[in-house]
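Form P-L/3: holo structure prediction, ligand magnesium ion.
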Amino acid sequence: MANPSLLILAGDGIGPEVMAEVKKIIGWMGARRGVQFDVSEDLVGGAAYDAHGTPLTDATMARAQEVDAVLLGAVGGPKYDKLDFSVKPERGLLRLRKEMDLYSNLRPAQCFDALADFSSLKREVVAGLDIVIVRELTSGVYFGEPRGIFREGNERVGINTQRYTESEIARVAKSAFELARKRSNKVCSMEKANVMESGILWREVVQEVHDRDYPDVELSHMYADAGAMQLCRWPKQFDVIVTDNLFGDLLSDAAAMLTGSLGMLPSASLGAPMANGRPKALYEPVHGSAPDIAGQGKANPIACILSFAMALRYSFDLGAEATRVEKAVEKVLADGVRTADLMGPEGGTPVSTAQMGDAIVAA
Ligand code: ATP
Ligand code: MG
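OUTPUT (holo model):
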Protein backbone atom coordinates (compact mmCIF):
# COMPACT_ATOMS: atom_id res chain seq x y z
CA MET A 1 0.00 0.00 0.00
CA ALA A 2 1.22 3.50 -0.81
CA ASN A 3 2.46 5.66 2.04
CA PRO A 4 0.01 8.30 3.28
CA SER A 5 0.64 11.61 1.50
CA LEU A 6 1.24 14.96 3.13
CA LEU A 7 1.66 18.33 1.41
CA ILE A 8 3.67 20.82 3.48
CA LEU A 9 3.10 24.50 2.76
CA ALA A 10 5.32 26.35 5.23
CA GLY A 11 4.48 29.83 3.92
CA ASP A 12 5.84 33.07 5.35
CA GLY A 13 7.27 34.61 8.51
CA ILE A 14 7.65 32.06 11.29
CA GLY A 15 5.87 29.44 9.12
CA PRO A 16 9.10 27.85 7.81
CA GLU A 17 10.72 28.08 11.25
CA VAL A 18 7.98 26.15 13.07
CA MET A 19 7.57 23.72 10.14
CA ALA A 20 11.26 22.78 10.37
CA GLU A 21 10.51 21.33 13.81
CA VAL A 22 7.59 19.26 12.46
CA LYS A 23 9.95 17.87 9.81
CA LYS A 24 12.28 16.69 12.58
CA ILE A 25 9.38 14.73 14.06
CA ILE A 26 8.46 13.26 10.66
CA GLY A 27 12.09 12.19 10.24
CA TRP A 28 12.10 10.63 13.70
CA MET A 29 8.86 8.75 13.03
CA GLY A 30 10.32 7.27 9.85
CA ALA A 31 13.58 6.24 11.48
CA ARG A 32 12.29 5.10 14.86
CA ARG A 33 8.66 4.11 14.39
CA GLY A 34 8.73 2.87 10.81
CA VAL A 35 5.95 5.32 9.89
CA GLN A 36 6.65 6.71 6.43
CA PHE A 37 4.91 9.56 4.67
CA ASP A 38 5.02 10.62 1.06
CA VAL A 39 5.90 14.25 1.81
CA SER A 40 5.83 16.98 -0.82
CA GLU A 41 6.61 20.62 -0.17
CA ASP A 42 5.50 23.73 -1.96
CA LEU A 43 5.10 27.48 -1.63
CA VAL A 44 2.08 29.44 -0.47
CA GLY A 45 1.38 33.07 0.38
CA GLY A 46 4.07 35.72 -0.03
CA ALA A 47 6.70 33.06 -0.76
CA ALA A 48 4.62 31.81 -3.71
CA TYR A 49 3.99 35.37 -4.86
CA ASP A 50 7.72 36.12 -4.86
CA ALA A 51 8.46 33.01 -6.94
CA HIS A 52 5.41 32.87 -9.24
CA GLY A 53 3.50 36.16 -8.96
CA THR A 54 0.52 34.40 -7.34
CA PRO A 55 -0.06 33.33 -3.72
CA LEU A 56 -1.07 29.83 -4.84
CA THR A 57 -0.31 28.22 -8.20
CA ASP A 58 -2.78 25.92 -9.96
CA ALA A 59 -0.26 23.09 -9.62
CA THR A 60 -0.11 23.52 -5.83
CA MET A 61 -3.91 23.69 -5.69
CA ALA A 62 -4.17 20.46 -7.67
CA ARG A 63 -1.67 18.73 -5.38
CA ALA A 64 -3.64 19.88 -2.30
CA GLN A 65 -6.76 18.22 -3.74
CA GLU A 66 -4.91 14.92 -4.19
CA VAL A 67 -3.06 14.41 -0.90
CA ASP A 68 -4.38 12.85 2.30
CA ALA A 69 -3.64 16.03 4.23
CA VAL A 70 -2.18 19.53 3.87
CA LEU A 71 -0.10 21.03 6.68
CA LEU A 72 0.25 24.81 6.49
CA GLY A 73 2.53 27.14 8.48
CA ALA A 74 1.40 30.75 8.11
CA VAL A 75 0.98 33.35 5.37
CA GLY A 76 1.47 37.10 5.10
CA GLY A 77 3.75 39.83 6.33
CA PRO A 78 4.38 43.57 6.08
CA LYS A 79 6.34 43.11 2.86
CA TYR A 80 3.09 42.21 1.09
CA ASP A 81 0.76 44.77 2.69
CA LYS A 82 0.72 47.02 -0.38
CA LEU A 83 -0.04 44.27 -2.90
CA ASP A 84 -3.29 44.25 -4.82
CA PHE A 85 -6.02 42.35 -2.95
CA SER A 86 -6.17 39.69 -5.68
CA VAL A 87 -2.60 38.53 -5.01
CA LYS A 88 -2.35 39.09 -1.25
CA PRO A 89 -0.78 36.12 0.61
CA GLU A 90 -4.03 35.50 2.51
CA ARG A 91 -5.76 34.85 -0.81
CA GLY A 92 -3.66 31.71 -1.19
CA LEU A 93 -5.08 30.27 2.02
CA LEU A 94 -8.62 31.41 1.16
CA ARG A 95 -8.39 29.67 -2.20
CA LEU A 96 -7.28 26.43 -0.53
CA ARG A 97 -10.16 26.58 1.95
CA LYS A 98 -12.72 27.43 -0.71
CA GLU A 99 -11.70 24.97 -3.43
CA MET A 100 -11.21 22.13 -0.94
CA ASP A 101 -14.64 23.12 0.47
CA LEU A 102 -13.48 22.88 4.09
CA TYR A 103 -16.76 23.41 5.90
CA SER A 104 -15.83 21.99 9.30
CA ASN A 105 -13.30 23.87 11.42
CA LEU A 106 -11.89 22.04 14.44
CA ARG A 107 -10.37 24.09 17.22
CA PRO A 108 -9.18 22.06 20.20
CA ALA A 109 -8.76 23.66 23.60
CA GLN A 110 -6.32 21.45 25.42
CA CYS A 111 -4.67 22.45 28.66
CA PHE A 112 -1.30 21.02 29.53
CA ASP A 113 -0.90 20.69 33.26
CA ALA A 114 2.38 22.62 33.31
CA LEU A 115 0.65 25.66 31.81
CA ALA A 116 -2.57 25.55 33.82
CA ASP A 117 -1.54 28.63 35.79
CA PHE A 118 -1.44 30.62 32.52
CA SER A 119 -5.20 30.38 32.20
CA SER A 120 -7.49 33.21 33.18
CA LEU A 121 -9.43 30.59 35.14
CA LYS A 122 -8.57 28.64 38.27
CA ARG A 123 -6.17 25.72 37.84
CA GLU A 124 -8.74 23.05 38.81
CA VAL A 125 -11.17 24.36 36.19
CA VAL A 126 -8.72 23.99 33.29
CA ALA A 127 -6.06 21.43 34.26
CA GLY A 128 -6.39 18.41 31.97
CA LEU A 129 -8.98 20.13 29.78
CA ASP A 130 -9.28 18.53 26.34
CA ILE A 131 -12.24 19.62 24.21
CA VAL A 132 -12.79 20.39 20.53
CA ILE A 133 -15.07 23.04 19.07
CA VAL A 134 -16.39 22.20 15.61
CA ARG A 135 -17.38 25.39 13.83
CA GLU A 136 -19.34 25.45 10.55
CA LEU A 137 -17.10 27.50 8.30
CA THR A 138 -18.64 28.11 4.89
CA SER A 139 -22.20 29.28 5.50
CA GLY A 140 -24.41 31.09 8.00
CA VAL A 141 -24.66 34.80 8.70
CA TYR A 142 -21.23 35.63 7.24
CA PHE A 143 -22.41 34.51 3.80
CA GLY A 144 -26.24 34.64 3.72
CA GLU A 145 -28.15 36.88 1.28
CA PRO A 146 -29.50 39.52 1.36
CA ARG A 147 -26.64 41.44 2.85
CA GLY A 148 -25.56 45.05 2.61
CA ILE A 149 -26.19 48.54 3.88
CA PHE A 150 -29.41 49.91 2.39
CA ARG A 151 -31.47 53.08 2.58
CA GLU A 152 -34.83 52.75 4.25
CA GLY A 153 -36.72 56.03 4.29
CA ASN A 154 -34.54 58.57 6.06
CA GLU A 155 -31.97 56.22 7.48
CA ARG A 156 -29.54 53.44 6.59
CA VAL A 157 -30.05 49.84 7.56
CA GLY A 158 -27.33 47.17 7.80
CA ILE A 159 -28.49 43.68 6.90
CA ASN A 160 -27.00 40.22 7.25
CA THR A 161 -28.92 37.02 6.89
CA GLN A 162 -28.45 33.84 8.89
CA ARG A 163 -29.21 31.08 6.42
CA TYR A 164 -28.56 27.35 6.75
CA THR A 165 -29.73 24.56 4.48
CA GLU A 166 -30.44 21.12 5.82
CA SER A 167 -27.48 19.62 3.95
CA GLU A 168 -25.08 22.24 5.30
CA ILE A 169 -26.12 21.41 8.85
CA ALA A 170 -26.10 17.65 8.25
CA ARG A 171 -22.56 17.56 6.88
CA VAL A 172 -20.99 19.50 9.74
CA ALA A 173 -23.00 17.44 12.24
CA LYS A 174 -21.64 14.24 10.66
CA SER A 175 -18.14 15.61 10.93
CA ALA A 176 -18.67 16.28 14.65
CA PHE A 177 -20.12 12.80 15.28
CA GLU A 178 -17.24 11.15 13.41
CA LEU A 179 -14.81 13.15 15.53
CA ALA A 180 -16.64 12.18 18.73
CA ARG A 181 -16.25 8.49 17.87
CA LYS A 182 -12.47 9.00 17.85
CA ARG A 183 -12.70 10.71 21.25
CA SER A 184 -15.14 10.33 24.16
CA ASN A 185 -18.28 9.74 22.04
CA LYS A 186 -20.03 12.86 23.30
CA VAL A 187 -21.36 15.85 21.33
CA CYS A 188 -23.06 19.02 22.53
CA SER A 189 -24.75 21.06 19.78
CA MET A 190 -25.22 24.80 20.39
CA GLU A 191 -27.62 27.25 18.71
CA LYS A 192 -30.36 29.69 19.69
CA ALA A 193 -33.44 27.62 18.82
CA ASN A 194 -35.38 29.73 21.32
CA VAL A 195 -35.17 32.86 19.13
CA MET A 196 -33.92 31.82 15.65
CA GLU A 197 -35.55 29.69 12.95
CA SER A 198 -32.13 28.63 11.66
CA GLY A 199 -31.49 27.45 15.21
CA ILE A 200 -34.68 25.38 15.26
CA LEU A 201 -33.67 23.72 11.99
CA TRP A 202 -30.11 23.25 13.28
CA ARG A 203 -31.36 21.40 16.36
CA GLU A 204 -33.77 19.22 14.34
CA VAL A 205 -31.23 18.23 11.69
CA VAL A 206 -28.44 17.48 14.20
CA GLN A 207 -30.88 15.27 16.11
CA GLU A 208 -32.01 13.51 12.90
CA VAL A 209 -28.44 12.79 11.75
CA HIS A 210 -27.73 11.46 15.23
CA ASP A 211 -30.79 9.20 15.41
CA ARG A 212 -30.23 7.85 11.91
CA ASP A 213 -26.45 7.32 11.79
CA TYR A 214 -24.87 7.93 15.19
CA PRO A 215 -27.20 6.60 17.92
CA ASP A 216 -24.13 5.37 19.83
CA VAL A 217 -22.91 8.94 20.38
CA GLU A 218 -24.21 10.82 23.42
CA LEU A 219 -25.89 14.01 22.10
CA SER A 220 -27.09 17.05 24.03
CA HIS A 221 -28.35 20.47 22.92
CA MET A 222 -27.69 23.80 24.57
CA TYR A 223 -28.55 27.41 23.79
CA ALA A 224 -25.31 29.09 22.72
CA ASP A 225 -25.47 31.80 25.40
CA ALA A 226 -25.89 29.20 28.14
CA GLY A 227 -23.12 27.24 26.41
CA ALA A 228 -20.76 30.22 26.60
CA MET A 229 -21.47 30.46 30.31
CA GLN A 230 -20.92 26.72 30.88
CA LEU A 231 -17.71 26.85 28.85
CA CYS A 232 -16.26 29.38 31.29
CA ARG A 233 -17.79 27.81 34.38
CA TRP A 234 -16.87 24.14 33.92
CA PRO A 235 -15.41 23.42 30.45
CA LYS A 236 -14.54 19.81 31.30
CA GLN A 237 -18.24 18.85 31.03
CA PHE A 238 -17.81 19.01 27.22
CA ASP A 239 -15.95 16.85 24.73
CA VAL A 240 -17.01 17.89 21.21
CA ILE A 241 -19.09 21.05 20.72
CA VAL A 242 -20.68 21.61 17.30
CA THR A 243 -22.03 25.01 16.37
CA ASP A 244 -22.60 27.43 13.52
CA ASN A 245 -20.18 29.89 11.95
CA LEU A 246 -20.96 32.94 14.11
CA PHE A 247 -21.32 31.21 17.48
CA GLY A 248 -18.30 29.05 16.64
CA ASP A 249 -16.21 32.14 15.95
CA LEU A 250 -16.95 33.49 19.43
CA LEU A 251 -16.91 30.22 21.34
CA SER A 252 -13.63 28.99 19.84
CA ASP A 253 -11.81 32.22 20.69
CA ALA A 254 -13.19 32.10 24.23
CA ALA A 255 -12.20 28.43 24.56
CA ALA A 256 -8.71 29.24 23.27
CA MET A 257 -8.16 31.67 26.11
CA LEU A 258 -8.99 28.97 28.64
CA THR A 259 -5.64 27.41 27.82
CA GLY A 260 -3.13 30.20 27.33
CA SER A 261 -0.67 31.10 24.57
CA LEU A 262 -1.40 31.54 20.88
CA GLY A 263 1.80 29.60 20.28
CA MET A 264 0.09 26.43 21.59
CA LEU A 265 -3.10 26.30 19.53
CA PRO A 266 -3.56 23.91 16.59
CA SER A 267 -6.51 23.70 14.19
CA ALA A 268 -7.94 21.53 11.45
CA SER A 269 -10.33 22.34 8.62
CA LEU A 270 -12.15 19.37 7.17
CA GLY A 271 -14.25 18.86 4.05
CA ALA A 272 -16.17 16.05 2.40
CA PRO A 273 -14.95 12.45 2.64
CA MET A 274 -12.52 11.38 -0.11
CA ALA A 275 -12.43 7.97 -1.84
CA ASN A 276 -10.56 6.50 1.15
CA GLY A 277 -13.40 7.58 3.46
CA ARG A 278 -11.33 10.23 5.25
CA PRO A 279 -12.16 13.90 4.91
CA LYS A 280 -10.23 16.41 2.83
CA ALA A 281 -8.15 18.21 5.40
CA LEU A 282 -5.93 21.17 6.06
CA TYR A 283 -4.11 21.52 9.37
CA GLU A 284 -2.54 24.75 10.58
CA PRO A 285 -1.60 26.60 13.76
CA VAL A 286 -4.13 29.22 14.86
CA HIS A 287 -1.40 31.87 15.01
CA GLY A 288 -0.28 33.96 12.03
CA SER A 289 3.13 34.67 10.52
CA ALA A 290 4.25 36.77 13.54
CA PRO A 291 6.43 39.21 11.56
CA ASP A 292 7.59 40.83 14.83
CA ILE A 293 9.59 37.72 15.79
CA ALA A 294 10.18 36.09 12.38
CA GLY A 295 13.75 35.05 11.57
CA GLN A 296 14.88 35.26 15.19
CA GLY A 297 14.43 31.66 16.28
CA LYS A 298 11.98 32.72 18.98
CA ALA A 299 8.74 31.21 17.68
CA ASN A 300 7.02 28.47 19.63
CA PRO A 301 6.68 25.46 17.29
CA ILE A 302 4.15 23.63 19.49
CA ALA A 303 0.99 24.89 17.72
CA CYS A 304 2.34 23.58 14.42
CA ILE A 305 3.50 20.32 16.00
CA LEU A 306 0.07 19.78 17.60
CA SER A 307 -1.54 20.52 14.22
CA PHE A 308 0.55 17.70 12.79
CA ALA A 309 -0.60 15.48 15.68
CA MET A 310 -4.20 16.25 14.67
CA ALA A 311 -3.34 15.17 11.12
CA LEU A 312 -1.94 11.90 12.49
CA ARG A 313 -5.16 11.25 14.37
CA TYR A 314 -7.82 12.48 11.95
CA SER A 315 -6.30 12.00 8.47
CA PHE A 316 -3.92 9.10 8.92
CA ASP A 317 -5.68 7.01 11.58
CA LEU A 318 -2.49 7.06 13.64
CA GLY A 319 -4.08 7.94 16.95
CA ALA A 320 -1.40 6.19 18.99
CA GLU A 321 1.34 8.15 17.20
CA ALA A 322 -0.61 11.39 17.77
CA THR A 323 -0.79 10.61 21.48
CA ARG A 324 2.95 9.94 21.46
CA VAL A 325 3.60 13.44 20.06
CA GLU A 326 1.19 15.07 22.51
CA LYS A 327 2.74 13.23 25.45
CA ALA A 328 6.19 14.42 24.36
CA VAL A 329 4.93 18.02 24.32
CA GLU A 330 3.42 17.49 27.75
CA LYS A 331 6.69 16.10 29.06
CA VAL A 332 8.92 18.96 27.85
CA LEU A 333 6.50 21.49 29.31
CA ALA A 334 6.50 19.60 32.61
CA ASP A 335 10.31 19.65 32.50
CA GLY A 336 10.12 23.45 32.35
CA VAL A 337 11.29 23.88 28.74
CA ARG A 338 9.80 27.20 27.58
CA THR A 339 9.94 29.35 24.48
CA ALA A 340 9.72 33.10 25.18
CA ASP A 341 5.92 33.26 24.74
CA LEU A 342 5.52 30.72 27.56
CA MET A 343 7.64 32.55 30.11
CA GLY A 344 5.69 33.50 33.19
CA PRO A 345 6.31 36.57 35.36
CA GLU A 346 8.93 34.59 37.32
CA GLY A 347 11.20 34.84 34.26
CA GLY A 348 13.94 32.39 33.29
CA THR A 349 15.86 31.63 30.12
CA PRO A 350 13.76 30.80 27.07
CA VAL A 351 14.82 28.15 24.56
CA SER A 352 14.89 28.71 20.80
CA THR A 353 12.44 27.26 18.27
CA ALA A 354 14.97 24.57 17.32
CA GLN A 355 15.77 23.71 20.95
CA MET A 356 12.07 23.24 21.67
CA GLY A 357 11.73 20.96 18.63
CA ASP A 358 14.81 18.96 19.67
CA ALA A 359 13.47 18.58 23.22
CA ILE A 360 10.16 17.25 21.89
CA VAL A 361 11.90 14.78 19.58
CA ALA A 362 14.09 13.62 22.49
CA ALA A 363 11.03 13.19 24.71
P1 ATP B 1 -2.83 36.98 11.34
O1 ATP B 1 -3.43 38.20 10.78
O2 ATP B 1 -2.10 36.14 10.35
O3 ATP B 1 -3.77 36.20 12.22
P2 ATP B 1 -1.83 38.40 13.55
O4 ATP B 1 -1.07 39.63 13.33
O5 ATP B 1 -3.24 38.45 13.98
O6 ATP B 1 -1.67 37.47 12.29
P3 ATP B 1 0.06 36.61 14.77
O7 ATP B 1 0.93 36.64 13.57
O8 ATP B 1 -0.48 35.31 15.15
O9 ATP B 1 -1.14 37.57 14.68
O10 ATP B 1 0.85 37.26 15.99
C1 ATP B 1 0.21 37.83 17.12
C2 ATP B 1 1.22 37.94 18.27
O11 ATP B 1 1.47 36.65 18.81
C3 ATP B 1 2.57 38.48 17.82
O12 ATP B 1 3.12 39.32 18.81
C4 ATP B 1 3.41 37.24 17.65
O13 ATP B 1 4.76 37.47 17.84
C5 ATP B 1 2.84 36.30 18.69
N1 ATP B 1 2.94 34.91 18.22
C6 ATP B 1 2.18 34.35 17.25
N2 ATP B 1 2.53 33.09 17.05
C7 ATP B 1 3.54 32.80 17.88
C8 ATP B 1 4.36 31.66 18.13
N3 ATP B 1 4.21 30.50 17.45
N4 ATP B 1 5.32 31.75 19.07
C9 ATP B 1 5.50 32.89 19.76
N5 ATP B 1 4.79 34.01 19.58
C10 ATP B 1 3.81 33.98 18.64
MG1 MG C 1 -5.13 37.51 13.45
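COMMENT: The chain has a mean pLDDT of 95.
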